[in-house]
Design a protein that fits this description.
- The complex is a heterodimer of chains A (155) and B (79).
- With 155 residues, chain A is mainly beta.
- Chain A has one domain: Hotdog Thioesterase (Thiol Ester Dehydrase, Chain A, Roll), CATH 3.10.129.10.
- Chain A contains 2 helices and 7 strands; from the N terminus they run βββαββββα.
- A 7-stranded antiparallel β-sheet of chain A has the order 1-2-3-5-6-7-4.
- In chain A, a hairpin with a 2-residue loop joins strand 6 and strand 7.
- The model of chain A has no long low-confidence stretch (mean pLDDT 96).
- Helices cover 53% and strands 0% of the residues of chain B.
- The mean pLDDT of chain B is 96.
- Classes of the chains: A mainly beta (155), B mainly alpha (79).
- Chains A and B meet through loops of A and helix 2 and helix 3 of B.
Chain lengths: 155, 79
């Protein structure tokens, strides 16, 4: 497979989240099944800044993690036959290292560690100006595929 | 390590059970740890432990400890 990029419209074909929960703006480079890298530009107009917090706006950690998970999703849903599939989070471990502020660009890099039977294990790093903002180990699933492999429960 | 011991150990480690857990009574969804994700972890750990690659239908049929013993016979693994 070959690597490619996705603009803000194209990436929505591979990522089912929409405003106000789409946390990535651009996929600079994706190698399906291997990695996805891109960014999210943060302006003071982001919906969460007025409330998080009124006197000190910064991007909620949960949404930074969501940005990582959405980018990892793109690394999987760009594989043949998976375009537009919905993914769910199974388990994430995240470490936060700095605040992400209005006007900054969150650079997001994710890598697929394994992809098997509907479960993807991966890791990601989000940074601002080369400074790490958060890192995460993530496990996501495409339920539609996972369910094909499960035993049938007897009634 | 004998196959029986190895087989039991995979259950114990996959589901984080005590070493003396009654694994022979386990079935899919009989404990909270053996859920959909736990099932995939169990299968992956069995494949690694016995160096096999299970077919989709065998993964679906692997619904309890005893059935698993029969399934592994297909892969020349005698428990």
């Amino acid at each position: 497979m070959e690597k490619f990029s996705l603009n803000c419209l194209e990436l929505q074909e591979y990522q089912p989240n929409r405003y106000p929960f789409l946390m990535i703006d651009h996929v600079d480079e994706v190698m399906p099944g291997e990695y996805a890298t891109g960014h999210k530009n943060l302006t003071l107009n982001e919906w969460y800044f007025p409330v998080h917090f009124p006197d000190g706006p910064n991007m909620p950690g949960a949404l930074q993690l969501e940005a990582l998970a959405q980018m990892l999703t793109v690394a999987i849903t760009t594989l043949p036959g998976l375009k537009g599939k919905v993914t769910h989070a199974l388990q994430h471990t995240v470490r936060f290292k700095r605040e992400v502020l209005p006007g900054e660009r969150l650079d997001i890099h994710t890598e697929v560690l394994s992809w098997k039977r509907g479960i993807c294990k991966g890791k990601g790093t989000a940074s601002v100006n080369g400074e790490v903002a958060c890192e995460a180990d993530m496990t996501i699933t495409i339920p539609e595929i996972l369910e094909e492999y499960l035993p049938k429960v007897k009634a | 390590m004998p196959n029986k011991e190895k087989y039991d150990q995979v259950f114990i480690e996959s589901f984080s059970l005590p070493a003396d857990a009654a694994v022979a009574k386990l079935a899919y969804q009989s404990i909270t740890e053996w859920d959909s994700v736990g099932h995939m972890g169990l299968i992956a750990n069995l494949e690694e432990a016995f160096d096999i690659m299970m077919d989709m239908e065998d993964i679906i049929d692997f619904s309890d400890y005893k059935t698993g013993i029969e399934t592994l016979k297909k892969y020349q693994i005698k428990i």
